[in-house]
Structures are given as structure tokens and as C-alpha cells.
Amino acid sequence: MKSLVLALALAPMMAFAAGKTTTATTTTTTTAATTAAATTGTPVDVKITGMTCGSCVQKVQEELAKVQGVDKATLKVELKGNHATMTVAQNDEKMMTAIKDAVTKAGFKVEKIDVATAPTATKKN
Questions:
Q1: What is the total count of domains within the chain?
Q2: Do 21 and 56 lie in a common domain?
């Protein structure tokens, strides 16, 4: 088992030394695709009251991850600042209610939900 782990760890370095860059190119492409996917949707910041420890953060994270339409890759709950950030598929009343319900189910309260709006284009004269 140790030799398998070592082989997996050394494989990218060995490929690079041999002049094979397909692994690096594939990784870069995959990362770019993941980043592009994570940027679609509407960014949301949820101010939460009552979180006091890491266990609180984990409870909120688990409940928000269950909400359909929340991008799990962008979901982050932080004790510092007592908030959660995420990208949601729809910016509507139903989604905001689902987010509030998830936080409440975890045992906390939503103080405020800020939804990022798209910047408006400035008109040139």
C-alpha cells in the first residue's frame, strides 16, 4: 500500500522530468472548468447569529449543503464574521426561504441575507 501511495505521489514529477506535460495540461483544464462552473449563479452572503464554535459551523454547513440549488463547491461557513457564503442557482424568494430554513434547522438564526447584484453597465455619451 505504501508503494502505491509513493508511486501516485511521484508520478506527476516523473512525467514532468520525462517531458510529458499532458497531466499538467489536463489538470489546468479541469481546474479552469471547475472555476467557470463555480462562477455561474448568484453569490449570496448570509449573516448568522448564534454560532460559537466549529461544531456550530459544521452543523450549518451540513444543512446548507442539503439545499437544492446551493453550489456545494462555493459553500463556505465561517465562525469569524458569523456568516456563510455560497452561489445559488436561483435568486428568488423560494431559495432564500430554503436557506433560512436550513440555518434554522441547524439551530441558528439568519440575521440578514445579502445577494450580489450584477454590475450595471455605464452608458457612455
A1: 2
A2: no
What's the pLDDT at 39? Answer: 54
Q: At 47, phi and psi to the nearest 5?
A: -85, 125
Integer CA distances (angstroms), 51 to 44, 45, 84, in order: 18, 15, 11
Same domain assignment for residues 20 and 51: no
- 72: containing domain: 41-115
- In this structure, the answer to whether residues 69 and 33 fall within a common structural domain is no
Cell 465562525 found at? 79
**What's the pLDDT tens digit per position in 56-115?**
999 999 999 999 999 999 999 999 999 999 999 999 999 999 999 999 999 999 999 999
E strands, the chain, in order: 42-49, 76-78, 83-88, 109-115
